[in-house]
Amino acid sequence: MIITVDPSTGREIEQLNFHTDAYVDERLTLGVKAQCLWRKNSVAERARLLVRIAEILRSDAARLAALVTVEMGKPISEATAEIAKCAWNCEHYAENAEKYLQPDYIEAGHRESFVAYEPIGIVLAIMPWNYPFWQVFRFLAPALAAGNGVVLKHAPNTSRCALAAQEVFEMAGGMSGLFSTLLIDTPKVRELIEDPRIAAITLTGSTNVGSIVGAQAAGALKKQVLELGGSDPFIVLGDADVQKAAKAAVRARFSNAGQACINAKRFIVEDGVANEFVEVFVDEVGKLVLGDPNDPETTIGPMARFDLRQTLHRQVLQSIDEGAVLKIGGGYAARPGYYYHPTVLDDVKPHMTVFREETFGPVAAIIRVSDAEEAIELANATEYGLGASLWSTDLARARQLALRIDAGAVFVNSVVGSDPRLPFGGVKRSGYGRELGEHGIKEFTNAKTIVVNG
Length: 454
Prior knowledge:
It is built from 15 helices and 18 strands. With 454 residues, the chain is an alpha/beta fold. The strands form four sheets. The chain has a seven-stranded mixed sheet, with helices on both faces. Strand 6 (149-154), helix 6 (159-171) and strand 7 form a beta-alpha-beta unit. Helix 3 packs antiparallel against helix 6. It is globular.
C-alpha cells in the first residue's frame, strides 16, 4: 500500500493500493498492441495528439498544479509554471518532431544510403517526485512523437500526480494502453525491466538507484538513459557582474526548495569579489518567504519528505563541525511539516561534507578560490557532472573555460535550466544519454541503415 503525506503538515493525504500483477500484465499487453498501431501513424498524426495534450495541460493547470503542491510541497507559483513547461514541451515536439526524425542521407558509394529513425517499442520510465509532471512529460512527448509507447513507474509520494498524467493523456484522446501509470512496489521494477514487452528504460533519480537500474537493464540487454544526481558548480570570476550573479544565485540554489539535480550547489567565487558576493547573496536569501506552499507569496515550501530533511541537516551540522561558517539559516523551521530554513555556509573546503556530497535541499556552500584555474579545478573535483554556471564579463575567456568544465551543460552568465530545444543530461556519475531537443527524441529510436543499389 502507498501512503501519501502532505509535506507542509506531515499529515496523511490518502492510501492507495498497489496495482495487481494481473493489472500490470493486462496494461503491458494492451500497450504492445497500441504501440504496434501507433507506430504506423505519420509523425504529423502523432503531433496532433501532443497538441491536444498541451491544450488540456493548460486548461487544467490549476488542478494539476494543486496536486503537485499537496503531494511534494512545491510553492503553487512554481507548480503552475511546471505545468506550463510541460505544455511547451509537447508543443515543441509537435512542431519539430517531423524535422528531427527526417532520414539522414549519407554518401557511401551506393546508389542510395540513409539512416531512418524508427520507434523501438514500449519504454519504461522511472521518474522522481521533485518535478512530478515535468519529468513525465519531458520524456513522454518525444517518446510518443517517435512512435513509442510508455509505461510509467513514478515515485510513490507523488502517486496522484502519476495517475493524473495518464488521465491527461486519455482526455486528449490517446490510444488506450499507449501510456500507462503503474502503481507498483520497488521490487517489482526489476520484473518490468526484464519483461520482454519492455524495450528500453529511462530513469531520472539518484546515482545509487541509477547504478542498480543500469545494471539490471544491461543484464536484460536493453537500452537505457540515466539522468542522475548532481553537485553543480556556480563559478563567479573576478570580472563578473557580482550583483547580477549573486541575485541569480538565489534562484539557482533555492528554486524548488533546492530539490533539483540541476540546482547550483557549490558556489565557487574568486577571492577578490567573494565578500561582495556573500553579502549580496545572504541578503537576498534573507528575503525568501518560507511558508504555506498554497500561498502565492511563498517562495520556499517544505522539503518533500521527513528523511530528506534529516539527511540535509546532518550534512549541515557535519560541515559546521568541519569548519564551515554558518551565515544564515541552519535548522528546522518551528512549524508543522518538513520545512528547513534557507541556509548559506561560507569558507567551505573540498574535504567538507557539503562539498563532497550532493545536498538535495535549501543549502548553499560557498568556496573561495584564488583564481580561475583553481575555480575550474574545484568545479571538476566531484564525481558528478550534470550542469555548471560560469559568470564573467570576458565572454571569449568564458567560452574557453566552459569547454574545460566536466558537465553535460555549461551556462555562461545565466542559471542552468532545461529547455525543450536543447539536449539535457550529464557525464561521470550524473548519468548518460540525453533528453530533450533532437538528441532526446532519437535516444529511443532504432537508427536503421538502409542501402539501395541496382
